[in-house]
């Protein structure tokens, strides 16, 4: 058991009219009500509070002149009782308080000191501790998409986030985007990245995608790496990214924080959290197409996205309408999926365990991959793909999904692949073969219940490092030859006729949904880059069952 660290300060201070023993160590601020009588009071509220120093947002001196100050709830609190004296005898600590469903709130407590010198000592000691936390950002570059989600981005930032950043002493350079890809291009070429400790995007998954495209591209160009070459190992980005959710799905925020709440996200940024994340690069014939961190979906999710883009004016409800429409349409697509299974790693897509804050699977697999990368640097002749052999599956699919993380979102709180990991260097490749509408509905509905969406005969899931997809009509002559041998000429010709858009109702191609953006190509080559970016987040926290044993209040 870890021992509480040495006390830096211990004083008797007052909260309102009650005396408390208040102590500060390098890790904790604790206030414990003084027990005047040893008699047990069953109806008295908890007498001891403890806050981790790492979760203190800021400390401020109270400057009111022997007067009262209005609290948030409208009541008045007395700051100073004695007359005629300078008033710097009280200080307020703002800190993170956990609320329901992974939400964080900014709470505050005001301590009254017997004299000014003591008050000053407390304020400077707490500030010293906060300044020593190197991971906290001091200067942030903020991009706001005014048109994401319900078009509330600017309002959300100004009302809920900016005041918190100001209280935490974070300075910001705020840019409201003027058109799509404004933030991406600004980051690629213009932004003075060295002057910032992080980039914040206010918007949805599409806006986040712009930010990572700008940052990853810039990092590769500055480091002399060719982003068009699918074989190149990409350089990790040094700046962390914060997401203030103001979009339609906000799946990246939800899956990394556990909730889509602007205040919670702002607090994770302020305390300087860090969550590494895998990124997939998507190429077509040695040309870079896009990066993806959440869903790469062909078939159902590609069609839903294509249809919903025409209904953008509807806001987030467009996905529900297009979802139902595409479910009824029930298109399937033929093609070949090849993949490189992830070997030597911990975890499978069917695990009961989930990726959570401080995930050991991500740590283990991340370490394994970086050691491997080091070895390859020494031995140039080694084949990068020697840890496994490519496997190939041909078929008719209703959906081909690659989930690099769970893709949990309010629509599906457990996500497309509930056991996927944020930073393990793999993506879960989910193949939903052609089946009846009823069966497909069973599969879809299981995304919203406790039942396993993979426990169906027409669904398979593989944890992979790399995969390729070729739609049937892009297949090589030798592949088509194989088809002829397998199925006989007559079947093939009737199939081609049925699939050809000119002479039948069923389209031959779907589109790829890449984190909510439509890809321009259907034949793609995808590779996972382990922990390429970092977010101001810590992963979803497990609800605490037992009191923290390092907390002196719990002992
Ligand atoms: N000023 C702007 N005008 C028009 N489009 C913009 C602007 N700034 C950003 N965009 C684009 O708007 C698109 C959607 O933005 P965003 O992701 O913020 O919201 P959303 O699509 O509603 O949410 P989600 O992606 O979570 O479903 C993005 O593709 C982004 O490139
Ligand atoms: C017939 C009804 C069946 C109901 C089934 C519900 C299943 C929900 C699964 C939700 C999966 C979300 C995956 C996230 C993808 C994001 O990268 C992307 C960008 O924001 N969002 C969409 O493409 C938006 C995609 C929205 C799909 C509905
Ligand atoms: Ca992953």
From TrEMBL:
GO cellular component: membrane
UniProt KW Ion transport keyword: no
GO biological process, one term: ceramide metabolic process
PROSITE patterns: DAGK
Keyword Kinase on entry: yes
Pfam families referenced in this protein's UniProt entry, alphabetically: CERK_C, DAGK_cat, PH_CERK
InterPro entries to which the protein is assigned, alphabetical: ATP-NAD_kinase_N (IPR017438), CERK_C (IPR045363), CERK_PH (IPR057465), Diacylglycerol_kinase_cat_dom (IPR001206), Lipid_Phosphate_FormReg (IPR050187), NAD/diacylglycerol_kinase_sf (IPR016064)
Name of this protein: Ceramide kinase
Protein's organism: Larimichthys crocea (Large yellow croaker)
Any one GO MF annotation of this record: ceramide kinase activity
Lineage summary: Eukaryota, Metazoa, Chordata, Craniata, Vertebrata
Keyword terms, alphabetized: Kinase, Transferase
Domain DAGKc as annotated: residue spans: 135-286
């Amino acid at each position: 058991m870890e021992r509480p660290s040495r006390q830096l300060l211990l004083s008797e201070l007052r909260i309102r009219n009650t005396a408390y023993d208040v102590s500060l160590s390098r890790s904790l601020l604790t206030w414990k009500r003084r027990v005047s009588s040893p008699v047990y009071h069953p109806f008295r509220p908890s007498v001891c509070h403890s806050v981790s120093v790492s979760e203190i947002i800021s400390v401020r001196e109270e400057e009111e002149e022997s007067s009262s100050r209005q609290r948030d709830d409208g009541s008045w609190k007395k700051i100073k009782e004695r007359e005629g004296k300078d008033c710097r005898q009280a200080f307020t600590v703002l800190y993170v308080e956990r609320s329901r469903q992974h939400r964080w709130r900014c709470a505050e407590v005001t301590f009254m000191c017997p004299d000014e010198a003591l008050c000053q000592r407390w304020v400077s000691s707490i500030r010293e501790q906060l300044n020593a936390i190197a991971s906290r950002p001091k200067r942030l570059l903020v991009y706001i998409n005014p048109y994401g989600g319900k078009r509330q981005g600017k309002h959300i930032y100004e009302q809920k986030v900016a005041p918190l950043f100001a209280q935490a002493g974070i300075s910001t350079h705020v840019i409201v985007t003027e058109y799509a890809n404004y933030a991406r291009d600004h980051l690629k070429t213009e932004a003075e990245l060295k002057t910032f400790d992080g980039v914040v995007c206010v918007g949805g998954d599409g806006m986040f995608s712009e930010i990572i495209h700008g940052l990853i591209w810039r990092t590769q160009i500055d480091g002399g790496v060719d982003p068009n070459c699918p074989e190149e190992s990409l350089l990790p980005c040094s700046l962390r990214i914060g997401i203030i959710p103001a979009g339609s799905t906000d799946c990246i925020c939800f899956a990394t924080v556990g909730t889509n709440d602007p205040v919670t996200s702002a607090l994770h940024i302020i305390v300087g959290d860090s969550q590494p994340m895998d990124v997939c690069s998507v190429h077509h014939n040695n040309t870079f197409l896009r990066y993806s961190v959440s869903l790469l979906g062909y078939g159902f999710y590609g069609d839903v996205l294509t249809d919903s883009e025409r209904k953008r004016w509807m806001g987030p409800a467009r996905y529900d309408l297009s979802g139902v429409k595409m479910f009824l349409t029930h298109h399937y697509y033929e093609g070949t999926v090849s993949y490189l299974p992830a070997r030597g790693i911990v975890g499978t897509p069917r695990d009961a365990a989930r990726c959570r804050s401080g995930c050991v699977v991500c740590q283990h697999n991340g370490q394994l991959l970086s050691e491997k990368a080091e070895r390859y640097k020494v031995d140039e002749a080694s084949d990068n793909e020697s840890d496994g052999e490519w496997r190939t599956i041909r078929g008719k699919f209703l959906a081909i999904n690659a989930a690099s993380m769970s893709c949990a979102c309010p629509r599906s709180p457990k996500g497309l692949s509930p056991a996927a990991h944020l930073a393990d260097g793999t993506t879960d490749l989910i193949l939903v073969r052609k089946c009846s509408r009823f069966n497909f509905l069973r599969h879809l509905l299981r995304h919203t219940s406790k039942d396993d969406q993979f426990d169906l005969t027409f669904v398979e899931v593989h944890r992979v490092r790399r995969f390729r997809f070729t739609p049937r009509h892009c297949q090589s002559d030798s592949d088509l030859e194989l088809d002829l041998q397998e199925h006989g000429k007559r079947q093939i010709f009737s199939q081609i006729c049925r699939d050809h858009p000119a002479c039948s109702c069923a389209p031959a191609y779907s589109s790829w949904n890449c984190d909510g953006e439509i890809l321009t190509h259907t034949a793609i080559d995808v590779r996972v880059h382990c922990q390429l970016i970092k977010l101001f987040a810590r992963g979803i926290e497990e609800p605490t069952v037992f009191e923290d044993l390092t907390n002196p209040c719990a002992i």
